[in-house]
Amino acid sequence: MSITAAHIAARMAGILPIGLGPNGTNRLAWTAEDAMAAEWFREQAEALGLVVERDPAGSLWAVPDAPGPWWAVGSHLDSVRDGGSYDGALGVAAAFEVASRLRHPIAVIAFADEEGARFNTPTFGSRALVGRLDVADALGRRDHDGISMTVAMRTAGVDPDGLAGAPAWLGRLKGFLELHIDQTTELAEAGMPAGVVAGLAARLRLALHVRGRADHSGTTPMGGRADALLAAARVVVAVNDLALSRPGVVATATRLLTEPNALTTVAEDARMWIDVRAPAGSDLDAVEAGVRDAAATAAALGGVTAEVTVASRSEAVVFTPSIRAALRAQLPGDARELLCFAGHDAGILAERIPAGMVFVRNATGVSHAPTEHVELADAAAAADVMLGGG
Ligand SMILES: [Zn+2]
């Protein structure tokens, strides 16, 4: 019997209300809501005869009573601030439904702190598992209330001193599959309830620092200024033009801080961050070169200095071809694969073990907001793709 909307609804019923308020879902890592979500995870696991363990990064594992390594399915249970109902939780609910139907032993995993909404540590649990987490940096981070991650983890019953031991758990996995809400309208436009993800886009974060000269915005002649904000603005427009000139590339000037940020002063200093995502690393190289050119031109025009640095970069992820083929075989022959422009735990794991992803149609394309929505019949169809492919 194939998986139906009612099966998914029954599994989601217990997790949906946790952290749900008038502005959306708030289920941030290491909070009381996170602990309630872990309790839901435990109930789901025990009903299937799986044993719940918590790895040193706080990720939840529901493991079978059979020697590992196992294949695992899962996603995450944490949310962003004022998030939606399906990002993450749907993947864990679907994972339990898939696990309940497979004859061979399989594990279900809910990765800790995937969103990184509290400490800006996205894909925390999966990065810890593959040994790609800067442990000292993460533990020293503080949330809005000044609480360190060390204290937050300890409060949640996870020993922060054990965090560096997380990679020892990776050997328990043969591979990992994740079901997730589509965060675009791509599947909706294609008229498909579910789709196979080919890989994750390459990502680059650039930082721009412009130094000019503070001066009176009324008395300084237009020709005699060193306006840091004006130069930054030229780069904002250039970033947009660079993305438009390269198919498949998205680039955004996302954050801008100016000094002295005063109503009647020409800006002396501007710091800006630029987020670039593209199908291939070569696209990132081209955009980076374009941004450097634009910054140099803006600096020369405006009598300021402009420095561009790489804040972070991650190369494109390609999911395991044999897994993609097995999943694609569950879909119509003309179904195209998707390229994902967001980060996911499955993408982190793909660096080390076989991994794949299935997306569920999202008619609005909205995610990370309470208006995000999927039809549970579509979620059931996507879970069936995983079941058939597994
Ligand atoms: Zn997610």
Features of the shown structure:
single chain; 390 residues; 2 domains; nine-stranded mixed β-sheet; four-stranded antiparallel β-sheet; 12 helices; binds zinc ion
Question: Would you write up a description of this structure?
Answer:
It is a single chain. With 390 residues, the chain is α+β, with helices and mostly antiparallel strands. The chain has two domains: 5-200 and 316-389, Zn peptidases (Aminopeptidase); 202-314, Alpha-Beta Plaits. It is built from twelve helices and 17 strands. The strands form four sheets. Strands 3, 4, 5, 6, 7, 8, 15, 16 and 17 form a nine-stranded mixed beta sheet that branches. A four-stranded antiparallel beta sheet has the order 11-13-9-14, covered by helices on one side. Helix 1 crosses helix 3, helix 3 crosses helix 12 and helix 10 (321-328) crosses helix 12 (376-389). The chain is globular and about 75 Å long. The model has no long low-confidence stretch (mean pLDDT 96). The site of zinc ion has 5 residues, from loops.
Average pLDDT for all residues: 96
**CATH architecture identity of the largest domain:** 3-Layer(aba) Sandwich
Shape field? globular
Q: Per DSSP, what share of the residues sits in E-state strands of 2 or more residues?
A: 15-25%
Name the structural class: alpha+beta
- Order of secondary-structure elements: HEEHEEEHEHHHEHEEEHEEEHEEHEHEH
Count of discrete domains: 2
Helix content: 25-40%
Q: Tell me the CATH superfamily of the largest domain.
A: Zn peptidases
